[in-house]
Amino acid sequence: MKTQNAEEHIAARLKELAAERVRAPRDLAARFAAHLSKVASHPDAVPIRLCGSKLEARARGTLLSAAMKNGVRVMHACGAQTLCATCRVKVTEGGENLTPMTLKEKVSLRYHFSVSPRVRLACQARVLGPVEADAIFPLCGTLPGDA
Amino acid sequence: MLKAERMPAAPDYSVSDDETSLLARLRRGDPAAAREFYDAYAQRIHRFILHALGPGNDADAEDILQDTFMALAEGLPFFRGQSSLFTFACAIAHRKTVSFIRNRARRGELMKDHTAEVVRLIIEPAPDQDLKNALASLSSEHRQVLILKYVEDMTVAEIAAVLSMSEHAVESRLARARRALTKALA
What's the CATH class of domain A44-135? Predict the structure, then answer.
């Protein structure tokens, strides 16, 4: 009973904060609308972030193809055959927006001791929605002098 | 009374009919729908971010709000409708906030100087200042669950979706947060 009273007291006190006016910036509404129509005008383009670079990937295309198309280095020694696992990426956000791991990918990652739900092969993971990932192999991404 | 009798049927947290039409318009890039969505949710999302960051971080909260809305615009075409739009938006805001806090910790930035804020509060004390001070003394995780539960009236299942946690973990965190707040208010 005492716990219930304490909870009711806290709920009542915190409800006071709901009445508090918080001002969201007005100009953001226009920027949100502009960005939304830009995204809607390219239904096949999926915005992703790879090695810190913002890219547009083709829907259902692989992370590696998006990287290559946009000039972001991702090592792929075996030529996307799932043999080398040098294209391993660590998914930091939006892992659910990648296609599920295939058996080939699982076997390759297990062989290279990289079994983690957050680690994927860029040559196999296909983009379904916004994702953020970083290459694990060194000297990937955009290097000084690339531009 | 049996527990099963007291338990309501599993609620449906997916997108409501009103939101379905709004979502369809948002996906088409309709500017009026974007404005409608912004007017309905921006203030609540901003408040969630402000409380997650704690006092004295208003400028950072605005930056995170902006990142959240840009990510939302990019994520809406891929939203599967398994939660309400507000839950989806809060989940993005939560991820952006956590990422910001982690980056700040990684950079080893010192906490901001809150002197000006404290002086302002002493000069013009607000009636609910004790509550705000008590909330400020809690961790960001505790503040987030309390705000989502008691200010935004979210269910435990919805909070679990926002914070990417199990419902059981949310309940435990809520209990700890309540205890911490009671102690801070005492």
Answer: alpha beta
